[in-house]
Design goal:
It is a single chain. With 50 residues, the chain is mainly β. The protein has strands spanning 13-18, 23-28, 34-40, 43-49. The strands form 2 sheets. Strands 1-2 form a two-stranded antiparallel sheet. It has a two-stranded antiparallel ribbon with strand order 3-4. Strand 1 and strand 2 form a beta hairpin. The chain is flat.
């Protein structure tokens, strides 16, 4: 798998590479707080805590 995504000035992005489903997902991190990537049954879900 090859993944390419542009760097966005001023943003923090999280790249999650899923070897089970063969997919990649990009999530934007919150400016203040935590960004949590959770998995359940091989699927991802993004949670944000402020």
């Amino acid at each position: 798998m090859t993944v390419s995504h542009p760097v966005v000035p001023g943003k923090v992005l999280v790249l999650v590479i899923d070897g089970v489903q063969g997919k990649a997902k990009v999530a934007e991190a919150v400016e203040h707080g935590f960004t949590i990537i959770e998995t359940a049954k091989g699927k991802t879900a993004q949670s944000e805590l402020f």
